[in-house]
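Subject line: Sequence and fold of a protein, written as structure tokens
Body of memo: The sequence and its backbone structure tokens, given next.
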Amino acid sequence: MIVAFSISPSAADETGSVSEGVAAAVRVVRESGLPYELTSMFTSIEGEWDDVMAVVKRAVEAVAETSSRVGLVLKADIRPGYEGQMSAKVERVQRLLGE
């Protein structure tokens, strides 16, 4: 499964940035060892259901250590029997675009 998620603390710094809280979440993702991609709006991770959801939970908990309220947006692509789809899905579209 692939999960794209965005975690945001309710408390921002003096500039309105939430990057410190987001960095705490991304550290959890990196330490998990699961394949992941970081974009400006979402982090995507790939793995088995229990592993992926455990990482998301730990990431939320990491952000909650510095913020009394945490927002989570999550989208999942559940396709049993497939691995390596974060890159394979993109490659299929790029092939069709002639890239």
Notes: The first helix runs from residue 19 to 32. The chain has a mean pLDDT of 93.
